[in-house]
């Protein structure tokens, strides 16, 4: 070998020295001999055996590798890319075995070389001590045997090197020295690294804070802390953070090292944590303090409303004040001790203390304007007083606008109203169930100014119940009723049936019905839109409906039904109509009157026609009589003899004796002999019986056993005989198909 010094010429070469290697005497020698090996290297492990001993295997972590014959008694194995063991024991055992089975082992460790310190910086909190820190890089295992040393050198001073920890170093400041040049060295068995840094100590001040006081209130907190180190600066730029909110940056002036700050805009009755840090120049910030916990005080507000009842007999008004306490936050339980109610009217002011369990107060006032103030009394915390003004009575006030609400698809109520320029502090919507058995439980919601819509979900309302919503506008003088809106979340068909249905007027073809119904009844499960009237005959239950009439005006409670039949019974039903269909019907049975005029017309018409004919024919009665005589006289040439006629009658009588009454048929008798008129007619008598009684069917003026014979020809006339074959029996023969006709002279 030879040497070089300061770039001068090299020295002469030394003499050659022969290295005969190491020799093992009584046990194996294993190389490399160092304890720590570098990660990632290719390492050759060698075993040197005593003289005469043959090495048969070399293992690493009990894993055999191929043997390499290095020389006489020397064997080796080659391990590539050496890795750090992942198990708990980081040691790598290397074992050599001879032919006799004897073994020799040695443990090796694998590690990595030191890394260059990164992000080296130095700060001071009191101008007395300086603290430097850096990033050491890769973290070492606790069982790593490659121990490192860190040393800090102040190169522009003559101070001795300063031993450090793995990532930081603290050393005293050099009096009266502002500029520092430092070097940090890291060494271990596998090498060394270093990093340098220069700084001015005045620019590297990092204040350390210590909490002094935390004073919470309802929506704010007062914080104070002390800046340690007896720094000469009085002005600091500090940052305060409350529960990861936006960091607030403040410029503070310390008084004897004490800084104070007041933070606003917090929520009442809520837990917070605060931390702070400060800087001298705004470039280098100190560390954040430990978080300090605090809870703001409770806040109680009152949602105040009123209901006014007027008395008709006096000017006294009965005002019911209603309120709902609202407690902000849930960090602690808030207990209200009492309520203070104060009201003033004209020059009189009164105050009353109410129990904490009450939520309303009833106060009687006069007709003038009255102001009310209610405030909750708390043991700890604050309560914002609620105010409301009762306007004076005004008979000239414009009545509110009334509307009916339509059903929404969601089932709730969707309210809207016209915005008023006179409204300065929002709206109030109040409602209650109308027609309930219990007293109305008044509910209300405040709507901010600028909003004229409100949706109320269906969960707070019932189907079939009518709700009335009063919309008030808030002004600087008080609340004024603007609109009244009424509706249902869902209308039902089960409305009441009409009462007192009665028949007002009836004719032979029409009836007039009248009924009573309270269409404004708030207990109804739906709005009444009209009425349905049906009419059917009283024949059977399945009789078809003859009339189905709808009345579109719910205030119209009468109807005339026409087109009915006379003297007929009908069932008339009346039911109230809603948007979802008709309700329960009320029925009445009526009977139409008889049309006597129509019947009289049917009777009088033929009579009048007959009288008319008689009147027309009366002047011609003599001529008509002569014509009739000519028509009904016997024809000329007919000659009927009396004996022949009696023989003919006897034959007919014998034939009729053998027939039953129902077997007799009509017969025609033609009298051929023309007789004189009635007073000249011949009387035929029975020779044997001249004094027998005649049938009752004959005229009583004739003799009992006589038969009148017409002298004139009369077709289809009835011939009556009266004959007594024996004294005790009388026989009468008559053709019942004819009527007797007697022609008067």
From TrEMBL:
Fibronectin type-III domain residues: 497-597
- At the top level, the lineage of the source is Eukaryota
> InterPro entries attached here?
ECM_Regulatory_Proteins (IPR050991), FN3_dom (IPR003961), FN3_sf (IPR036116), Ig-like_fold (IPR013783)
Q: Which Gene3D superfamilies match?
A: Immunoglobulins (2.60.40.10)
| Designated name of the protein | Fibronectin type-III domain-containing protein
Q: Does the keyword Repeat apply?
A: yes
Q: What's a Pfam family this protein contains?
A: fn3
Q: Which SUPFAM superfamilies match?
A: Fibronectin type III
Q: Which UniProt keywords apply?
A: Repeat
């Amino acid at each position: 070998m030879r040497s070089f010094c300061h770039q001068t010429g090299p020295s002469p070469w030394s003499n050659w020295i022969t290295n005969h290697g190491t020799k093992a005497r009584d046990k194996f020698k294993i190389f490399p001999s160092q304890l720590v090996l570098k990660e990632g290297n290719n390492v050759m492990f060698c075993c040197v055996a005593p003289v005469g001993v043959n090495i048969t295997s070399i293992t690493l972590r009990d894993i055999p590798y191929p043997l390499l014959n290095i020389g006489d008694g020397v064997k080796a194995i080659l391990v590539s890319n050496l890795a750090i063991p992942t198990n708990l024991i980081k040691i790598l055992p290397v074992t050599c075995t001879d032919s006799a089975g004897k073994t020799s082992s040695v443990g090796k460790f694998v590690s990595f070389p030191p890394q260059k310190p990164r992000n080296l910086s130095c700060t001071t909190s009191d101008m007395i001590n300086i603290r430097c820190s850096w990033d050491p890089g890769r973290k070492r295992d606790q069982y790593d045997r490659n121990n490192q040393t860190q040393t800090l050198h102040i190169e522009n001073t003559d101070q001795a090197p300063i031993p450090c920890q793995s990532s930081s170093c603290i050393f005293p400041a050099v009096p009266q020295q502002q500029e520092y040049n430092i070097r940090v060295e890291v060494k271990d068995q596998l090498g060394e690294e270093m990093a340098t840094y220069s700084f001015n100590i005045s620019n590297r001040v990092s204040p350390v804070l210590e909490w002094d006081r935390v004073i919470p209130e309802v929506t704010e907190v007062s914080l104070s802390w002390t800046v340690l180190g007896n720094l000469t600066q009085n002005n600091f730029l500090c940052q305060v953070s409350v529960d990861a909110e936006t960091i607030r940056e403040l410029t503070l002036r310390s008084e004897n090292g004490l800084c104070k700050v007041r933070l606003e805009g917090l929520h009442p009755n809520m837990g917070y944590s605060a931390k702070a840090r400060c800087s001298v120049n705004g470039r280098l910030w100190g560390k954040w303090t430990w978080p300090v916990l605090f809870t703001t005080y409770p806040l109680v507000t009152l949602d105040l409303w009123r209901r006014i009842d007027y008395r008709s007999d006096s000017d006294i008004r009965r005002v019911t004040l209603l309120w709902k306490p609202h407690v902000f936050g849930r960090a602690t339980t808030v207990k209200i001790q009492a309520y203070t109610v104060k009201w003033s009217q004209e020059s009189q002011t009164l105050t009353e203390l109410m129990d904490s369990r009450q939520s309303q107060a009833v106060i009687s006032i006069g007709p003038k304007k009255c102001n009310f103030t209610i405030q909750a009394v708390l043991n700890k915390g604050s309560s914002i007083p609620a105010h409301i003004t009762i306007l004076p009575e005004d008979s000239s006030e414009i009545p509110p606008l009334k509307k009916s609400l339509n059903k929404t698809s969601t089932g709730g109520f969707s309210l809207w109203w016209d915005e008023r320029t006179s409204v300065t502090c929002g709206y109030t919507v109040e409602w209650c169930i109308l027609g309930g058995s219990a007293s109305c439980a008044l509910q209300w919601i405040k709507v901010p100014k600028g909003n004229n819509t409100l949706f109320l979900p269906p969960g707070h309302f019932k189907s079939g119940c009518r709700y009335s919503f009063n919309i008030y506008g808030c002004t600087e003088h008080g609340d004024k009723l603007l609109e009244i809106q009424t509706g249902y979340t869902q209308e039902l068909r089960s409305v009441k049936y009409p009462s007192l249905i009665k028949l007002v007027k009836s004719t032979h073809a029409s009836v007039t019905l009248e009924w009573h119904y309270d269409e404004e009844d708030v207990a109804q499960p739906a709005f009444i839109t009209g009425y349905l009237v049906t009419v059917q005959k009283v024949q059977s239950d399945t009789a078809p409906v003859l009339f189905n009439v709808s009345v579109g005006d719910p205030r119209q409670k009468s109807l005339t039904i026409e087109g009915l039949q006379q003297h007929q019974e009908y069932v008339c039903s009346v039911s109230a109509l809603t948007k979802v269909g008709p309700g329960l019907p009320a029925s009445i049975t009526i009977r139409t009157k008889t049309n006597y005029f129509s019947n009289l017309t049917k009777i009088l018409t033929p009579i009048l026609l007959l009288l008319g004919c008689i009147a027309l024919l009366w002047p011609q009665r003599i001529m008509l009589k002569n014509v009739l005589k000519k028509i009904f006289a016997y024809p000329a040439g007919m000659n009927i003899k009396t004996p022949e006629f009696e023989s003919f009658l006897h034959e007919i009588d014998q034939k009729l004796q053998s027939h039953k009454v129902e077997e007799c048929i009509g017969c025609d008798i033609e009298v051929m002999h023309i007789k004189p008129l009635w007073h000249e007619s011949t009387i035929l008598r029975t020779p044997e019986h001249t004094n027998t009684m005649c049938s009752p069917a004959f005229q009583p003026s004739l003799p009992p056993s006589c038969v009148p014979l017409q002298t004139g020809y009369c077709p289809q006339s009835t011939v009556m005989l009266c004959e007594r074959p024996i004294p005790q029996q009388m026989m009468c023969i008559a053709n019942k198909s004819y009527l007797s006709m007697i022609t008067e002279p």
